Amino acid sequence: MLCLMNWIIAGLGNPGKEYDGTRHNVGREFLQQIEKSAGGGSASGGKEIRKVELFGKKVTVVTPDTYMNNSGLAFKKLVTSKKQAEQFVVLQDELDLPLGKVKLSFGSSSGGHNGINSIHTALKTKDFVRIRIGISPATPSGKLKKPTGEEKVVDFVLGKFKATEQDKLKKAKKLVRDALELLVTEGREKATMEIHSRN
Fold first, then answer.
1. pLDDT at position 17
2. Residue 73, CB half-sphere, CA atoms under 13 Å: how many?
3. What integer pLDDT is reported at residue 45 of this predicted model?
4. Within 13 Å of residue 198, how many CA atoms lie on the same side as its CB?
5. What strand order describes the sheet that includes 49-54?
6. Distance CA 173, CA 91 (A)
7. Beta-carbon contacts of residue 114 (< 8 Å; ≥ 6 apart)
8. Which residue numbers in the chain have pLDDT < 50?
9. Architecture of domain 8-197
10. Which are the catalytic amino acids?
11. pTM
12. How do the residues of the chain divide into helix, strand and coil, expressed in percent and rounded to 5?
């Protein structure tokens, strides 16, 4: 049985034009693009928090004005109970997945992602949905080639996607769009099974 509470959907990233198109901003930018293409209802609210109709359902969309490492600050007043957390979805970049892959997680550790760490601390729970969008390169056989060392990781996630990566980026955005539609219309279990079977 689906919860009657409205979904809160957040896209993580850094505010400011200088971060547009960077790997760290893929969650934020995918959400903005999907909201624009799959809406159908007029938005209300401010720039950062918007109440919209998405896939025929009323949802709250959040693109925080906080920087990635302080993402949790944006959600403390929005997600105020365990039940509400279970209807909270975060779109994030994921170093541990190759570009083109998308996975859904619930109740899992951050994997070292500072934005997710901040949300765990602010909400005092890990029990929310994460749509993890792969950003790392991989070999033709699928072996991950993610950067190592803090400096290299920072340079990589703040770098922009290459022209040669656009096809995989489009594939990932389609998966994320479908994941969101399944989440808000069919629920977490159906969305997870369907998306994981496709990539």
1. 93
2. 8
3. 54
4. 17
5. 44-45, 49-54, 57-62, 8-11, 88-98, 129-136, 102-106
6. 11
7. 68, 69
8. 1-3
9. 3-Layer(aba) Sandwich (3.40)
10. 24
11. 0.93
12. 40, 25, 35
